[in-house]
Amino acid sequence: MPLLSICIPVYNGEKYIGNCLEPLVKMDDVEIICVDDGSKDNSLVILTEYKNKYDNIIVMSQTNQGQSSARTRALEVVSGKYVAFVDVDDWLETRAITFLKEIDSRYCPDFVQFGVVSEYDGWNSRKKLLYPESKLLNEKESKELYAYVCGLIDDKDIGHDYFGLVSCKFYKTDVIKNIRFVSNIVGEDTLFASEAGTKITSTYFLSEYLYHYTSSEGSYSHSIMKDIIPKSERMLVSMKKVMEIDDSSEELIRKAFYNRCFYMFEWCLRAMGFYMIKEPSYQHAVLSEILSKPIYRELFNNLDIIYTDEHKINLINFVKSRCSI
């Protein structure tokens, strides 16, 4: 049994496959599972060439069903002790396996969180770490990390945009083997990570930047804006159920959830061109469509618990001035 299984969904990734796979084939004690999701370019041909060259690469193909389906199919065949998810236009540093070996031998945790470098058009940015040093987290710290995974933003100035990704984490396979990615939503990473968090009993925080995140034309990250309002609603409703959110839930977890709701609310606004099209009638129509969904009306009934800054306060006041909430 390999120590690590790496799952890679591939869609029209011919320009990125080499950059993604080269650091991984230099690792030992890993299996690499690539699922071609009906690519229209030469992705499957290139993947097959890698499979013929390296005996630890598994290649599967399917008709185009989306990233969630491709990841789930890979999960069904993993044999490693741990699982990692890598997108084809991103890359995971080779040294990641060295860290995992050491962490596993000393602590054998259910979950390892590490840092992300965002790369766009020649520049990069290191996402701020939650803790400055690597360590096995205690119960309080684990709960704090889980809150960030679900959506907490506070005055520590640490965004939840990378904590919610599944691709900067190692999961113990036995912990997540019965979890599946949900299709036809936005925020599938966060939903999966929030459900996984309910099953994790030990967490190691690794203060190393190992995952390099990019966004490229034609990738999955550029195909999420269609029907974003109902898709975001489905994700949040599912997440609320997974997290068991109600009035009796712990405040930190409720805060995390409703911060995620606000994040998705703004995501819908951006996707619908709310900030670009200043026509009042159009803005009112967009707000009305979003707020027709019960989960977003619920958000505005729980604004007292979310973290707010000047931008959020101004947006909330604007929405209240335009809509009856």
Helix content: 40-55%
Q: How many domains make up the 3D coordinates?
A: 2
Proportion in β-strands = 15-25%
How many E-type strands?
Answer: 10
Classification by helices and strands? alpha/beta
- The rough form would be described as globular
Q: At the third CATH level, what is the topology name of the largest domain? A: Spore Coat Polysaccharide Biosynthesis Protein SpsA, Chain A
Residue-averaged pLDDT = 92
Plain-language structure description:
- The protein has two domains: 4-220, Spore Coat Polysaccharide Biosynthesis Protein SpsA, Chain A (Alpha-Beta Complex); 226-322.
- With 325 residues, the chain is an alpha/beta fold.
- Strands 1, 2, 3, 4, 5, 6, 7, 8, 9 and 10 form a ten-stranded mixed sheet that branches.
- The longest helix has 21 residues, at 251-271.
- 42% of the residues lie in helices and 18% in strands.
- The mean pLDDT is 92.
- The protein is built from twelve helices and ten strands.
- It has helices at residues 17-25, 43-53, 67-75, 96-106, 139-150, 173-176, 188-197, 228-243, 251-271, 280-291, 294-300, 310-322, and strands spanning 4-10, 30-37, 57-62, 82-85, 91-92, 111-120, 123-126, 135-136, 169-172, 203-213.
- It is globular and about 60 Å long.
Features:
Spore Coat Polysaccharide Biosynthesis Protein SpsA, Chain A, ten-stranded mixed β-sheet, alpha/beta, 12 helices, 325 residues
Write the layout of secondary structure elements.
Elements lengths: L3 E7 L6 H9 L4 E8 L5 H11 L3 E6 L4 H9 L6 E4 L5 E2 L3 H11 L4 E10 L2 E4 L8 E2 L2 H12 L18 E4 H4 L11 H10 L5 E11 L14 H16 L7 H21 L8 H12 L2 H7 L9 H13 L3
Parallel strand pairs: 1-2, 1-4, 2-3, 6-10
Antiparallel strand pairs: 4-9, 5-10, 6-7, 6-9, 8-10
Helix pairs in contact: 5-9, 7-8, 8-9
